[in-house]
Write a structure and sequence with these properties.
There is one protein chain. Helix content is about 55%, strand content about 5%. By secondary structure, the protein is an alpha+beta fold. The protein folds into 5 domains: about 120 residues, Pleckstrin-homology domain (PH domain)/Phosphotyrosine-binding domain (PTB) (PH-domain like, Roll), CATH 2.30.29; about 180 residues, Helicase, Ruva Protein, domain 3 (Orthogonal Bundle), CATH 1.10.8.270; about 120 residues, Cyclin A, domain 1; about 110 residues, Recoverin, domain 1 (Orthogonal Bundle), CATH 1.10.238; about 150 residues, no CATH class. About 40% of the residues are buried.
Length: about 900
């Protein structure tokens, strides 16, 4: 199947990436249906996933877009008057084209903008032509399409589905002037199937939606809060007009909607800086947020209405950061700007609770509001958070950390001298983290940083990588001469704070983290246009495919690093509270985590066993339910009771499940094991006692399947064997004194445990009996527990008589308990046909059975009288051997469990 090592390694990387993201990063990761069953994954499935990811990343499309076909073809490009060779990509809602020569020509055609898809007559000059017409009166001619008929048929089906699900809404509320591109759909002809009737009804529904929606800010904030720069108004307007003229000429030749031809020429225009009057509109086009905006009329207004007035942790975080967002700009020194920012951030948190609100979103959103209308800014934020910077805005900023790791590798590749001087590039990665999270907005003057955002919306994350490399190259000498990280930070801060935009019509607005120097010597100024041009010329050769490959490679390391950090933090908290050795604790953590993972992803999901949630506190990230706990209990618990083990495990789980959410975390699991392995005898007995009273023992708890069926407690057997009468009396006095001492020494601050009923006591005895099975001292232990059982039975019966008479004092009760210790009595587990209880005794028991109780102190004192029992509970236990066996058998036990569960289904199907 695999003919070379590179292919094998590539497949392994893809499998590792799918597995790690599925297990550890499901916060935003949705697995393709074809990859849901691990045993059914094929090489073709992995290749299809990789192609899907490349397609979405290259054209920066929504995550839910599924690639249907990739076809070699040629597209007529009127600006070059020839056909450009490339490939057509078709998905659920898009037709895209990319030239084979990188950056030569790309086209994105949302199906909602498509009017018709037609096959034309086949000729020698135009083989297999297809014409795609769009609403802005443009047509795209594709030729040399293989399987043209089936391709066109499938496209028409999807086109009809898109128009049925998202009827086109026409916006005629504003007239576009000549300086703005046309961004709204217009009707081509009256007899078109999406004609006047639908247009009128759409307008009416949109107007009614607007009446219901809350009041939104109708224009970009910069048009209201325009600042006057240091340049003369004439010079400022002259430069703006020149840029606008260049862009208008470009629109005429290459198109002015989202369906425009995207070539190297437009990249150069973007690098020069977008005119302020066009900036917000072009951001919408480049990100394709305009399609989301047109497809969801009234959506944002409804979100605002639903989310405003609600108070939660997210809204508190938003309120805290509102006044930290561009505080130096007058738009956000005013309630108008603050209110708009609040609405957008709150609405997005309501739309996407998985992300909610993350730091740096406020800075980005405030800049979007400066250049776009409020609703447009919302959809731009959606585009950035959900497809242009995937995994950036979540609780662990995985995406940003992955890109930091990629950036380190690019530094080694493009700036080897700097990488050689700075042995540890993690310092540079930490410094540059804010570059990626805020797109340089927080560390560069605003009028310069918006030019970076221009490039980002056109070229995606590639623009940030290459600009970061350009910044480091420009400061390579200073960085190489720096003696520590602080000095390196100083060098970069001074450089970034002195990047200016000579063409900006507004005044200089400093960065959030501007560096101030005491040096009187002026620092040289760098023009942002020059820096961007250098970044494209020197580092613009990185393709989207290369970046995605590097992301895949480094994502594995970053996610594994997060897991290691989680493990260290959990162990740091748990280690001081238990006596288990740190190395054994690590093994237990790995077993616990593995059980969680296997049950989450090898079995059908269950309501009480949710998928891994990395947003939870470290100690609560891995939690297991009762079935998973039972598996682990059988593997690592020293209290193995044969068939009774599963019952004991279920009771232990109920005891540890304090909040009754049917899940327990690692700390509770280890604390319980620590008592079993390292606890004093009284701690172990107390744990066993608690396992046989509520809530661990329930009314519906099934009886043990121990060899003793339907046991009866009998008091007709001798209590003490081989002892003289005098010895027995001394023994009774000693026991009585022990009970008194235990009562005095009991910690008053500790909540007293309830007494144990007769039913609970029977279950307690069954557990002890099962624990002794196959022990080397089995016979002695059985004899000892028989003695102790009889003793406790007599104590309970004496207390029962005392309770029924109601006239015995505490001292009298103790005398009764002592008198009950007769040398000719004992208790045993007996079958139904053995150990008959005298009729008078049975009658008395039935009358007051509900009052029969025994306390923890009674049980502990009674057990202490038998040396064999003391030896059993105090003997050292080896957890290492248990852990070694558990590591070997964990997978086999899980496999056996799953196969056993599938047997009934198999039989049912056969029937």
């Amino acid at each position: 199947m695999f003919l070379n090592l590179d292919e094998v390694f590539k497949i392994m990387e893809q499998l590792a990436d799918v597995t790690l993201r599925r297990l550890l990063d499901n916060e935003v990761f949705d697995l393709d249906p074809d990859l849901q069953e691990p045993s059914q994954i094929t090489k073709r499935d992995l290749e299809a996933r990789a192609q899907n990811e490349f397609f979405r990343a290259f054209f920066r499309l929504p995550r839910q877009e599924k690639l249907h076909s990739v076809v070699d073809c040629s597209l007529w490009t009127p600006f070059s008057r020839c056909h450009t060779v490339g490939r057509m990509f078709t998905s659920d809602r898009y037709i895209c084209f990319a030239s084979k020569e990188d950056g030569c020509c790309n086209v994105i055609l949302p199906l909602r903008e498509v009017v018709s898809i037609e096959k034309m007559e086949d000729t020698s000059l135009l083989p297999n032509p297809v014409i795609v017409s769009i609403r802005s009166k443009m047509a795209f001619q594709f030729i040399e399409l293989k399987d043209r008929d089936s391709l066109v048929g499938s496209l028409l089906v999807r086109l009809q589905r898109v128009h049925a699900n998202h009827p086109v809404h026409y916006d005629t509320s504003q007239d576009e002037d000549m300086t703005s591109p046309v961004f709204h759909s217009t009707s081509m002809c009256g007899d078109h199937k999406f004609g006047d009737l639908e247009m009128v009804s759409s307008q009416n529904s949109e107007e009614s939606e607007k009446e219901k929606s809350p009041r939104l800010h109708p224009e970009a904030l910069i048009s209201v809060f325009q600042q006057s720069g240091s340049q003369s108004p004439d010079l400022r307007m002259s430069r703006e007009q020149i840029k606008i003229s260049l862009w208008n000429d470009h629109f005429v030749e290459y198109g002015r909607t989202v369906c425009m031809f995207r070539t190297e020429k437009i990249r150069k225009l973007v690098a020069m800086g977008i005119p302020e009057s066009l900036r917000g509109k072009l951001w919408l086009l480049f990100s394709d947020a305009v399609t989301d905006l047109a497809s969801h009329p009234g959506y944002y207004g409804n979100l605002v209405e639903e989310s405003m007035g609600k108070c939660c942790l997210v809204t508190e975080e938003i309120e805290r950061d509102l006044h930290r967002s561009l505080p130096e700009h007058p738009a956000f020194q005013n309630e108008t700007g603050i209110a708009a920012l609040r609405r957008v951030l709150t609405a997005y948190a309501h739309r996407n609770p998985k992300i909610g609100y993350c730091q740096s979103m406020n800075i980005l959103t405030s800049v979007l509001l400066l250049y776009a209308k409020e609703e447009e800014a919302f959809w731009l934020l959606v585009a950035v958070c959900e497809r242009m910077l995937p995994d950036y805005f979540n609780h662990r900023v995985i995406g940003a950390q992955v890109d930091q790791s990629v950036f380190e590798e690019l530094i080694k590749e493009h700036l080897p001298e700097l990488a050689e001087h700075m042995n540890d590039l993690s310092a540079l990665a930490s410094i540059s983290l804010s570059w990626f999270l805020t797109l340089f907005l927080s560390i560069m003057p605003l009028e310069s940083a918006v030019s970076v955002v221009d490039c980002f919306f056109y070229d995606g994350i590639k623009a940030i990588f290459q600009l970061g490399l350009a910044v480091l190259e420009a400061n390579a000498e200073g960085l190489c001469s720096s003696k520590d990280d602080g000095q390196a930070l100083m060098v970069l801060s001074r450089f970034l704070d002195h990047i200016k935009n000579e063409d900006s019509p507004g005044p200089s607005v400093g960065s959030h983290h501007a560096f101030f120097s005491d040096d009187q010597e002026p620092y040289p100024v760098t023009d942002i246009a020059d820096l961007i041009r250098d970044s494209y010329e020197k580092f613009g050769d990185q393709s989207v495919e290369q970046i995605e490959h590097l992301r895949c490679k480094h994502r594995i390391r970053v996610l594994q690093g997060h897991e290691d950090t989680t493990k260290q933090n959990v162990l740091r908290v748990v280690t001081p509270e238990v006596s288990i050795l740190p190395e054994d604790l690590e093994e237990l953590y790995d077993l616990f985590k593995r059980e969680h993972m296997m049950s989450c992803y090898w079995e059908q999901p269950r309501p009480v066993a949710p998928r891994h949630d990395p947003s939870r506190p470290y100690a609560e990230q891995y939690r297991i339910d009762v079935r998973q706990f039972t598996h682990l209990f059988q593997l690592v618990s020293p209290w193995t009771c044969g068939a009774h083990t599963e019952i004991l495990a279920e009771r232990t789980f109920r005891l540890l499940d304090d909040n009754m959410d049917h899940l327990i975390e690692f700390k509770a699991f280890v604390s319980c094991l620590d008592v079993m392995y390292n606890g004093e005898m009284n701690e172990k007995i107390k744990l066993l006692y608690r396992l046989h009273i509520p809530p661990a023992l329930t009314e519906n708890d099934r009886d043990s399947q121990s060899p003793l069926k339907n046991p009866l407690l009998s008091t007709s057997r001798p209590l003490v064997f081989g002892k003289s009468n005098g010895d027995a009396i001394d023994y009774q006095k000693q026991l009585k004194q022990m009970i008194k001492d235990l009562a005095k020494e009991k910690d008053k601050t500790e909540k007293e445990l309830p007494k144990m009923s007769q039913r609970e006591f029977i279950q307690f005895c069954k557990t002890l009996y099962s624990m002794f099975h196959e022990d080397p001292e089995e016979n002695e232990l059985y004899q000892a527990i028989a003695t102790v059982t009889t003793l406790l039975l007599q104590i309970g019966e004496v207390g029962q008589r005392s309770s029924s008479s109601g006239s015995c004092s505490q001292e009298g009760g103790e005398e009764l308990r002592a008198s009950a210790l007769s040398p000719d009595q004992d208790s045993v587990f007996a079958d139904n046909n053995a150990g008959k209880i005298p009729q008078d005794s049975r009658t008395f028991t039935e009358e007051v059975e509900g009052d029969w109780t025994v306390s923890l102190e009674h049980i502990l004192a009674s057990l202490l009288t038998e040396q064999s029992l003391v030896n059993f509970f105090e003997k050292p236990l080896d957890i290492k051997s248990k852990l070694e066996n558990a590591k070997i058998n964990q997978y086999s036990l899980k496999t056996f469990e799953m196969s056993r569960q599938s047997q009934p289904e198999l039989k049912l199907n056969n029937v």
